[in-house]
Amino acid sequence: MATIQHKPTPTAPSTTTGGGLRAMDLYEKLEKVGEGTYGKVYKAREKATGLIVALKKTRLPEDDEGVPPTALREVSLLRMLSQDPHVVRLLDLKQGVNKEGQTILYLVFEYMDTDLKKFIRGYRANHEKIPAQTVKILMYQLCKGVAFVHGRGVLHRDLKPHNLLMDRKTMALKIADLGLSRAITVPMKKYTHEILTLWYRAPEVLLGATHYSTPVDIWSVGCIFAELVTNQPLFPGDSELQQLLHIFKLLGTPNEQMWPGVGKLPNWHVYPQWKPTKLSTLVPGLDADGYDLLEKMLAYEPAKRVSAKKALEHPYFNGVNKEPESLGSSSTCFIKLHSMALKHKMPVLIKANNSLICYFIFVRFQNYCMMIERYVAGLRRCMALPSAFRMTSLSDYERPSAVSVQITCSVESLREAGQQDGWLY
User: Fold this and answer.
1) Dist. CA 102–CA 120, nearest whole Å
2) What is the CA radius of gyration of the chain?
3) CB 200 within 8 A of CB 223
4) Which among 291, 281, 275, 301 has a CA at the least distance from the CA of 219?
């Protein structure tokens, strides 16, 4: 049975502005890992804890307009959505000044070492197909993340492989780049049709619809599904018209019978009449359940497209472990903190390493470092493993936002200690 693994999840965002320190006094840039319309992205290390993060740098305009709306939107949505394991986690928000005196906004994210676009490109370069079970695991995570986003009343509007971050070792997949996202409203709000990267844009948007909802994201998910199977984009158009014609040529030209109301959309014209090509010809390599799910995602009529929530129940995903991982593989459990200074629950994230387990504990606290020392002393007592303990030095700073603790022991030792002392449940 396939298992979805999640890498250790850092603590929730503090969204501070850096206090008296410049933002980049807190982080060491390691390398640039990306660049987009709204800024550059760097791999960086938090100096206080050694935690590897991704810094998204956005230059603020030197006028009265303030923070760009895309940055504001992304921050507000990430605060709401980044608690889900399938959405990239916003750790912090910093404001700084560069060498030219310009104001810079830094979004601090958990670090993921690749994205789905690079992952697919690697297989394509080696002339290899992504294993069917890997496709299934990645698609399940994507549907799970989209279901969560939609369930919180948000349209992503720019789902594409480049915006899906991954961990190479665990195959964890997370939705990122919410700069174009919008809240779903009732009645349906009028949106611009200039959204989405062209290849993953739904036909109703290409035809000029300005009232649309979650099915636009499902179309994108279907395009990504096909690309995972074939290593090639399904509809690689060069313009909006070419994109439409490409879709019509492969899936057949839509009509009022298959898509009621299509003729009333603003950009509808008389198009060449093509018959649909079988999905098994377009996307060779799927089983019957896979073709059925793909067909439901690429339905012309938006109302007939499967929802992300319903997609999770599809037989295609039979065989994917949909339950939280059991203790002893990659999983999450909780400990009880007896210290009055640290009363909240703390996640203990477990990563298998042969017969040993590494526990990475990211501790967030509000008072002084001595409170962490009290916690550490209690942990040493209940684990009875002082020699295996290693902790980030606290000498270089007074009140860090987080400190990482790593303890290595056997699964059996942890289970016994937790049951005896009542902190594992």
Assistant:
1) 37
2) 24
3) yes
4) 301
Give the C-alpha distances (Å, rounded to integers) separating 41 from 53, 82, 264, 314. Answer: 10, 18, 42, 36
HEC string of 366-424 equals: CCCHHHHHHHHHHHHHHHCCHHHEEECCCCCCCCCCCEEEEEEEEHHHHHHHHHHHCCC
CA distance 106 to 60: 10
351 is in an annotated binding site: no
Per-residue pLDDT tens over the stretch 2-38: 555 554 444 444 444 444 456 667 889 999 988 755 6
Q: Are 48 and 26 in contact (CB under 8 A)?
A: yes
3-state secondary structure of 84: coil
Lowest mean pLDDT among 228-237, 283-292, 303-312, 333-342: 333-342
Report how far residue 391's alpha carbon sits from residue 286's, in angstroms, rounded to the nearest whole number: 48
- Active site annotation includes 158: yes
Token digits of residue 266? 């603003």
CA distance 177 to 213: 18
pLDDT tens-digit series, residues 236-282: 999 999 999 999 999 999 999 999 999 889 889 889 999 999 999 99
- The answer to whether 38 and 59 are in contact (CB under 8 A) is no
User: Looking at the DSSP assignment, which residues form a beta bridge with residue 29?
Assistant: 44
The verdict on whether omega for the bond into residue 187 sits within 30 degrees of 0, i.e. cis, is yes
| Catalytic-role residue among 84, 92, 158, 177 | 158
Is residue 239 helix, strand or coil? coil
